[in-house]
Every structure is written in C-alpha cells, then in structure tokens.
Amino acid sequence: MRRQPKQARSQERVSQILNAAEALFIEQGYEQTTTRAIATRAQVPVGSLYQFFPDKAAILKALADRYMQQEYELFASLHAAVPEPMPLANYVDRVVEAFDHFMTHQPGYRAVFEQVLGLMTAGAIAEMDTYEARIVDDLADFLGRLGPGLDAAQRRAIALVVVESVGNLLWLSLKADAPLRARLIAETKRLMTHYLASYFGKTIGKAG
C-alpha cells in the first residue's frame, strides 16, 4: 500500500475498496477487472483508490494479506490455551474442520490466492509468509506445552510439517469434486492424527 489508513474514515474506505475488488475478481476475473471498475463498485473516486494502492496487483496482495491475518486469528483462537484432556483425533478434527470451513466459506479465497500464485514472483509471495511463520512459531510453542520433553528445534520441525501438510492438502481439496474433497479432508485428519500421536500419544491436554 502507498500509505496505511489511520483514521476510521480512511480504514472504512480501504475496506470498501477491498470488498469491491474481491467481488469483481469473483464475478469477472482478475484480468478483466480494472481499478476504475473497483472504484465505481466501492463508490469512491478513483483518485482516492490511488491514494492507497498504486495498482491492481497491490489490491490483490492486500486481499491476500487480509485473508492471512484472518487465518492467523483463527489459529490463535483455537490454540489460546492447552485444552482439557481430549482424544488427539478430536483436536485434529476441530482444527482441520475450522480451517476448511474458513477456506470454503470465504467467497473470494480461492479466486484471490489462485491469482496470487499465478501473478506474483517468488520473492513477493515470500514477503507474505509472515503470518504462516507466526502460525508455525505459535504451534511450536503450543506443542511445547503439550510435550515439554521435546527440544525447540524438534517442536518447530513438527509444527512446520503440520502447517505445510494441512495447508497444502486443504488447498488441493478446494479444486476437487465433492466426493474426492471429502476423502482428502478425511485423509488429512488421519495423516495428522497418526503423525502427532507418534509424539504425544492418543490423548492431549493438561493431563496428557
């Protein structure tokens, strides 16, 4: 962004622009959408749009950033505290279902990230991985509270395997038909349950 909105009115205007862009990317596709069309849909002068965003690609990146922030907040809410003792399979089911619901119930999620992967350079995408890195670090900390016998390097490696595996498999499932999608989600849960059980057993929580 050219500048970050600080006042409530500016923040509302940026939100209007992002919401309008997301809707148009879904309806018309990224390539067919113009910044002028985004400004018109958002009911803001095109000059106001350019005050915040230099071009359409910057709007796309801002949408991706917004989704990644929301994903991080979802992760944080699910891992705010070590759970009461529960079957590990229940924990895995809860987390995978929550992220699958998020990815499938955000209308522009797939449209935005398919464009991000198709248009942006590896370096630009890497700059957006800060939220994923925070999730990995926070999950490593969470796993440390579950299994204090694991050293920091091992916890981080486990967290990285979990985040990358679940994220990529859920993304893959978005492109599958309904029967295959259900199978992929079930296999993702099975994979993570057996993998984590090899470190933490079948029950996690305060007494785990």
Automatic annotation (TrEMBL):
Record keywords, A-Z: DNA-binding
Protein name: TetR family transcriptional regulator
Residue ranges of domain HTH tetR-type in the record: 11-71
Record keyword Chloroplast present: no
Pfam families reported for this sequence: TetR_C_15, TetR_N
GO molecular function: DNA-binding transcription factor activity; transcription cis-regulatory region binding
Superkingdom to which the source organism belongs: Bacteria
PROSITE patterns per record: HTH_TETR_2
DNA-binding positions: 34-53
Gene3D superfamilies: Tetracycline Repressor, domain 2 (1.10.357.10)
Keyword DNA-binding annotated: yes
